[in-house]
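Section 4.2 – Deliverable D4.2 (structural model, holo form)

The reporting period included a commitment to supply a predicted holo structure for the target in complex with EPZ. Inputs used:
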Amino acid sequence: MSRLVIDGLKRLKGETEVQGSKNSALPILAATLLNGDESILHNCPDLSDVSGSVNILRYLGCDVAFSGGTLVCNSKNLNKNHIPNSLMREMRSSIIFLGALLARTGSASMCFPGGCEIGPRPIDLHLKALSELGVVINDDHGVFKCHVPDGLHGAKIALSFPSVGATENVMICAVLAEGTTVITNAAREPEICDLADYLNSCGANVSGAGEGTIVIEGVQSLKGTSHTIIPDRIAAATLLAGCAATGGRIKLNKLIPSHLGGVLSVFEESGCDVSVRGSSIVFDSPHRLTAPKIIRTMPYPGFPTDAQAPIMAMAAKSKGTTLFVENIFENRYLHVGGLLRMGANIKVEGRVAVSQGVECLHGAEVEAMDLRGAAALIVAGLGAEGRTTLDGLKYLDRGYEKIEVTLSSLGADVKRV
Ligand code: EPZ
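Output (structure tokens):
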């Protein structure tokens, strides 16, 4: 079992590029089932969650080739509409395949995706919305069998919560439905816009993505296309947090700064100098950070829940107190244990955490319990005196493409052993 070994307090400097977005690639990979044709996806990150999606696509009969950041998927020979438990378990967000299978084949069956480390991850919003499009869902002892007896038809869908996954599942399912679908209280994340761009480049008719209301005019069929996946805004935030934890100065290239709105203001509040230059950010951090006062995670364009853990690690040794309120997931403070071992002073009460900044963190043997928690422990290790070893890299590799290589290129002393 490999682990990361980090010798901290090396100021990060230099420049690097940001990987393609995991949370954009995953729904688009599911949507490649729709066109029965070839999709060429550029800037696709090489992650275990992407491999999980590729395994599902291949199992369903698609031809998939992936090299040098370009993934080519041809869904012409799709010949199944059931996803086995083993493949569902591999990836929490595999529920996103449901809408695509229903739109392409008219029926689908899969088991309820397991919960994951950060919470039970219910799918009630997905199932309710799909049933409004004409999907009949039978729960057969944990395996749900879906079919569309009278075909898919447009509907007015009001999401009770702007769920990213539910918004994506409805978009993917509705593009081939008969008539118009209107989604209100839709998620507004940049990954929603990227999915809409991919679908429209296949010939769909999706408008309003990125706003609260999305309108989809169903079309008869879709065709192949090529699409470039947007940069990963959470990977970018993680690299900036790592830089800030070391008092470093870096330049990040190939990103979309406007996607980082909710996070850049926190870095500035912490005393970092952020200068946006087109698709790059020049980032300079002080020797000691000022603690940001309050971090409330919210749906986009609020502060992203996925950045809460790396930012908490950065704030752990800042000057002052930070209040965290995690409004999106039930159990997203799994990284606090590791941070405490490294000398942080953090108290958690339900969805609230209070971090009293300490003068310095010290290296320790720590273990990741979830994806963004792994990133947090790396950020803390970069800013800690001495050596940190990090276990649990299976979580890290779900969402970060060779982050130790990227950090080493910026002057960090981090090795995978
Ligand atoms: C997506 O998850 C992302 N994953 C998550 O990133 C991200 O944290 C989340 O959106 C919020 O931005 C992917 O895109 C693959 P939600 P998703 O549906 O779609 C509740 C990462 O670290 N809910 O917006 O699952 C749910 O329990 C991952 O990259 C229901 O109650 O998020 C949660 O509390 C983690 N019923 C809240 O809504 C449902 O049917 C937000 O979930 C669906 C969701």
